């Protein structure tokens, strides 16, 4: 028996990276897993990997930015498994560009997926999580939800917003009679496809950016999934994923707003 045995867990953005690793690890630990993503090929591979653990798996194409679709999906998962215990709002995209280089549409797309996707998933599943009597909302922010970096204003805005939304929800659940735990996750650099799939302003060399990211990302998605699930088991408010995340968190506490100048210089030198 594990903490997750027999529980129903939903993972968005499960076709790749952290989402796939979470889905497989949840399957290994005895959960029934609902996976969704816009990438149906990647999703089919995740479905195969989760099924190979012996877990019950439901797989669906879902764009988390499409609110109506998310609401219908939440009902379908509840109907299929009879209940929902955990939702991992993980789907996300990245974009690199200075504020004066980005179009409004670029910023809106990041907010639609990275912020509204999390809000849609949280609100759609919250009634079922409350009803389960043993619910858990796990929202994936980023270390970029703890500190800002040049060229990341849209992503920073979305990830800071996820953090505020999630921390407030946690406080509300603590004050209520609902047995729903809430965890905000802040990964550091994880070796996934995020930078390769990312958008960038025209003046930026996307391949070069992805190359720089690959050199800096230290933690495997499998290790990230284990760290996240340990935090979930312990009902943690905040989970930092990777030594880099722990170190960044310490530096910003010590330096206060002084980190901005420091990180701007270091980030620029690292080619980010
Ligand atoms: P990834 O690119 O490997 O996986 C993200 C998945 O989300 C992909 O399968 C993609 O198809 C899916 N997705 C994108 N837009 C979607 C939409 N509208 N609806 C449904 N699915 C959608 O990236 P990774 O790294 O696994 O990212 C997972 C989460 O972790 C994201 O929220 C990301 O912002 C966050 N994160 C990642 C870090 C990293 O270093 N890789 C660091 C900090 C946070």
Automatic annotation (TrEMBL):
Keyword line: Oxidoreductase
InterPro entries for the chain: KR_dom, NAD(P)-bd_dom_sf, Sc_DH/Rdtase_CS, SDR_fam
GO terms, molecular function: oxidoreductase activity
Lineage top rank: taxon: Bacteria
Family matches, as SUPFAM superfamilies: NAD(P)-binding Rossmann-fold domains
Ketoreductase domain: residues covered: 7-193
Family: Belongs to the short-chain dehydrogenases/reductases (SDR) family.
Protein name (database record): SDR family oxidoreductase
Species per Swiss-Prot/TrEMBL record: Aeromicrobium terrae
